[in-house]
From TrEMBL:
Top EC class of this enzyme: transferase
Recorded GO MF terms: threonine-phosphate decarboxylase activity
Family: Belongs to the class-I pyridoxal-phosphate-dependent aminotransferase family.
InterPro entries: Aminotransferase_I/II_large, NHTrfase_class1_PyrdxlP-BS, PyrdxlP-dep_Trfase, PyrdxlP-dep_Trfase_major, PyrdxlP-dep_Trfase_small
Cofactor(s) listed: pyridoxal 5'-phosphate
Superkingdom of source: Bacteria
Keywords, alphabetical: Aminotransferase, Lyase, Pyridoxal phosphate, Transferase
Lineage, top ranks: Bacteria, Pseudomonadati, Pseudomonadota, Gammaproteobacteria, Oceanospirillales
Domain Aminotransferase class I/classII large: 58-330
UniProt cross-references to SUPFAM superfamilies, sorted A to Z: PLP-dependent transferases (SSF53383)
Protein name: Aminotransferase
Record flagged with keyword Lipid metabolism: no
Listed EC numbers: 2.6.1.-
Length: 340
């Protein structure tokens, strides 16, 4: 018999694995494990031509992205994941500083070719102190920052990031993953003039709720963009993704409405979850944006995650140590309710 409490999917959103593990049909799951907008952009009708033509990058797509992000110095990619995997093979072979807790595909990609050091990322003070000390000891390295951190919510001010980048030498780069930055665009590095050694990753799917499109953007110097385009090859962004993104990225009215709706959904979700977290005596790490996270004893986190999964509710558990885990919850839409 399977030990259901041992189930830990590699990524959020793996409902197939959860369904097989718990014996609950796919259509009976509520997925709170991804941090995606649960009320996605309405895609509407899609012309057949976007399926039949080769997906060369359309001018309207490039213009929409440049307008939305405030910069045209980007490479459009099939999800930022492809860039995360490619960048360590393109940049100088230097040591790299990585968040101990964060999107783990960063560390998986860097560890294959670079010496890695992990900094604490549960709190802004611990993270900043460690990085400051590391840069005093060695400026010849790369630095990866997830901003805001997923799942801890730690946010580093752009002025601090620019200062850190200015201290990197010998080809060292600052890679900033802004996958969850859409709700706080004023804090994005894309509002600043970027030096040659900063690379910013943006994800389309989270705010717009369309993860299946597989669309992301890499903002970087012309040299790094050229290397990335060479490494990834033609047709990184499919035709339907370009068509839908061209509309979504220019639909300012929907974007404003989505920001308001997400704030309402966050309040709604918190009301549903607070009683159970009071029962489990957890510590709030992040209580804003597209997800909320709590820190608790690993044993309690496993019990709670399993309890929810047995009711068909999938969440994300991130183990920090033998003793502590983070539970991350995505948002309920305003039409969804759960009884815990």
């Amino acid at each position: 018999m399977k030990d259901k409490s041992s189930f830990t999917p590699l990524h959020g959103g793996d409902l197939v694995a959860a369904s097989e593990h718990y014996g609950i049909p796919l259509d009976q799951w509520l997925d709170l494990s991804t941090g995606m907008n649960p009320e996605p952009y309405p895609i509407g009708d899609i012309p057949s031509s976007v399926f039949t033509e080769l997906p060369y990058l359309k001018p309207e797509f490039l213009s929409a992205a440049a307008s939305y992000y405030g910069s045209d110095a980007f490479v459009a990619v099939s999800g930022s994941q492809s860039a995360i995997q490619a960048l360590p093979t393109l940049l100088p072979t230097l040591p790299v500083l990585l968040p101990r807790i964060g999107y783990q595909e960063h560390s998986k990609s860097w560890q294959a070719t670079h010496a890695t050091t992990f900094y604490p990322s549960l709190t802004i003070d611990a993270q900043s102190l460690f990085i400051e000390t590391a840069l005093v000891e060695n400026t010849s390295q790369h630095l990866v920052v997830i901003n805001p951190n997923n799942p801890t919510g730690v946010m580093i001010a752009p002025e601090v990031l620019l200062d850190w980048a200015s201290r990197l030498t010998n080809g060292g780069c600052l890679i900033v993953d802004e996958a969850f930055m859409d709700l706080t665009p004023e804090l994005s590095l894309l509002n600043r003039a970027l030096p040659e050694n900063i690379i910013v990753l943006r994800s389309f799917g989270k705010f717009f709720g369309l993860a299946g499109l597989r669309l992301g953007f890499v903002f970087a110097s012309q040299n790094i963009r050229a290397q990335l385009e060479q490494a990834l090859g033609l047709w990184q962004v499919n035709g339907p993704a370009q068509f839908i993104a061209s509309k979504a990225l220019t639909d300012a009215e929907w974007q404003r409405s989505a920001v308001d709706r997400i704030a309402q959904m966050h309040v709604h979700t918190r009301k549903m979850l607070v009683p159970v977290f009071q029962e489990f005596k957890s510590e709030v790490l992040n209580d804003s944006g597209l997800f909320m996270s709590w820190l608790m004893d690993t044993s309690k986190a496993m019990i709670l995650a399993d309890r929810l999964a047995q009711q068909g509710i999938l969440i994300r558990r991130v183990q920090c140590s033998d003793d502590q885990s983070v539970l991350r919850f995505g948002l309920l839409s305003l039409s969804q309710n759960i009884l815990l």
